[in-house]
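Reply to dn_fold:

You asked what the input looked like. This is it:
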Amino acid sequence: MRIALYQPEIAGNVGAILRLSACFGVPVDIIEPCGFAFSDKRLARAGMDYAAEAEFTRHSDWQTFDSARQGRLVLMTTKGSVSLYDAQFEPGDILLMGSEGAGVPDDVHARADLRVRIPLRPGFRSLNVGMSAGIALAEALRQTKGLPE
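and this is what came back:
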């Protein structure tokens, strides 16, 4: 299981996801360009000392990531046709999170093997990307028996 971040814009969200990664032992792929300098203090503050324990790979662009990836691409999207709780996750899945402001472009959307949405109350559009990553990862790891003991 992996988390992939498509052109993230907010350093604090990446830091929080790196902390999530360290706590659950799940690697992160960061698909650039990022909307911030990777040395941003907000990245370190959100990740706290946990981010140093996270395994992550930076990819220069989508094509570099896509050509190197192994495993099924599961896009977390408000346009997903499958509810998170109906999705069938596999241990090698890559949970792809779009950028905070724009999600992912249509060509990236089309590359996904599965498009999953987190059900929300009517009238609510979306969650913070870090929170969405945590919810999706916990469900995927629960299904695949990958949660830490």
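Helices lie at 11-24, 41-47, 62-68, 106-111, 129-143.
Hope that clears it up.
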